[in-house]
Design a protein that fits this description.
This protein is mainly alpha-helical and 436 residues long. Helices cover 75% and strands 0% of the residues. It is elongated and about 80 Å long. The chain starts with 10 loop residues before the first helix and ends in a 7-residue tail after the last helix.
Length: 436
């Protein structure tokens, strides 16, 4: 996949936020992208449905959005489905289009990506036909999130850029900020970390200007995630703690799951495994309570990493297997590939080198197809060491050269460090102490 090359967003868009810097295209990550506009207190999880004549559809829509942000996605879908049917009967195209958009977002949250895409495209078609320019940005953002989740990164970047354009045309500063943050998600996957940071920072500033609590918390979570990814876990902790406080202040449990999980990752990177385990357990409970399948799988994998550290590789493989089942069911290509690589490392540690090489090769092929370049470096490093252990030094050297070149191109400390450590371990295996 080609690298993201959308160029900077127009300064006129940033002027809506009171910002002066240009934004490049952005990145996806383990943080929460904010497709919605609500920052209010969560509504009850089991609301009573009032009757819904056309004059009350707006009130029902607002109620459904509050329920969505409370994490009660099935309840939100019940209300939204009712609104969509009543709006169609009443000939209220704007209300119907909005209801379909939020139905798509609820399906996205629950890992039903094909359904989410179909609903999002139906909503977008209605908006275009009825010339609902003020609603277009949310549709493009929603469809972009599905494309990002399904590792269609070029398509996701294009949809987020269209979201920014649509928001800018109607003076929607919130839409511009959210599109910038969502572009940051794509940039993260592509390994364009400076671009990702600019996108998340623009989202944070937009949230502050607009007094949008959830937008600020989402941006801080993404910035914390990015610090972890580039090898600065300690710097991530203040941002993640602030994000968690903001999520709690508005009762947004979905965001809390993300922030808590990211804190677990940071503590694990710092060697504080007890604190990490407590965080992942907490995040897993929230994910299961809300039916967040992808997040559940993420948390299972993080717990598996801790079992690896505790030398309980059998239990780790069980947890990785459970996570992989969820990823495959949801069609999450990036996550499937990452899980395969992690299992490859464990098989190698158990002496099953051929199985490890096969799994890591599958991961590399998938990440290359997707265009996830930072993950490609990690795959190459694993394969480099596995081929050395398997008595194939020429293959090991070839893969190491590829990893070195890609890490240099990406220009991140974490990628360069991963390659340097692989070089040292291979030199040690070859008894080249000076090189080590």
């Amino acid at each position: 996949m080609s690298r993201c090359s959308l160029g900077p967003l127009p300064a006129s868009f940033l002027a809506l936020l009171g910002l002066g810097a240009f934004l490049g295209c952005g990145d996806p990550s383990g943080g929460e992208p904010n497709p919605g506009a609500s920052s209010g207190v969560a509504a009850p999880s089991s609301p009573t449905l009032p009757s819904a004549p056309a004059s009350r559809l707006e009130s029902l829509l607002s109620q459904a959005i509050d329920v969505y942000y409370a994490g009660a996605f099935d309840s939100a879908r019940t209300i939204l489905g009712s609104v969509a049917r009543d709006a169609e009967a009443a000939g209220d195209t704007p209300a119907r289009a909005r209801a379909l958009t939020w139905l798509g977002l609820a399906a996205w949250r629950q890992g039903r990506y094909a359904e989410s895409r179909a609903l999002g495209e139906e909503a977008l078609a209605l908006k275009l036909e009825a010339d609902l320019g003020d609603q277009l940005s949310r549709s493009y953002n929603a469809l972009g999130l599905v494309a990002w989740q399904e590792a269609r990164l070029g398509e996701a970047a294009g949809l987020f850029a269209r979201a920014a354009d649509a928001a800018g045309e109607v003076g929607d500063a919130a839409g511009v900020a959210k599109a910038a943050g969502n572009l940051g998600l794509v940039a993260t996957e592509l390994g364009e970390f400076a671009e990702a940071r600019r996108g998340y920072t623009a989202m944070l500033e937009g949230g502050r200007v607009l007094l949008d609590t959830i937008m600020q918390a989402n941006a801080l979570t993404n910035l914390g995630m990015l610090d972890i990814k580039v090898g600065q876990p300690r710097e991530s902790i203040p941002q993640l703690r602030t994000a968690l406080e903001l999520y709690r202040s508005v009762g947004y449990a979905t965001g809390q799951e993300n922030a808590v999980g990211q804190l677990g990752t940071a503590y694990a990177a710092l060697g504080e495994l007890g604190r990490a385990h407590a965080m992942f357990d907490s995040a897993l409970g929230i994910a299961r309570e809300q039916g967040l399948r992808k997040e559940e799988a993420n948390d299972l994998e993080e717990l598996a990493e801790l079992y690896v550290a505790a030398d309980n590789r059998g239990r780790a493989l069980e947890l990785y297997g459970a996570a992989l089942d969820i990823y495959q069911e949801a069609g999450l290509q990036t996550e499937v590939a990452g899980s395969l690589r992690k299992q490859a490392e464990i098989h190698a540690e158990l002496g099953n080198l051929s199985s490890g090489i096969e799994l890591a090769s599958q991961a590399l092929e998938s990440h290359r197809r997707i265009g996830a370049r930072f993950e490609e470096v990690r795959d190459l490093v694993v394969l480099t060491e596995l081929h050395q252990l398997n008595g194939a030094p020429e293959a090991s050297d070839r893969l190491l050269d590829e990893a070195r070149g890609l890490a240099s191109e990406l220009g991140t400390r974490r990628a360069r460090a991963a390659v340097a450590l692989a070089e040292a371990r291979i030199a040690e295996a070859r008894e080249d102490s000076r090189r080590v």
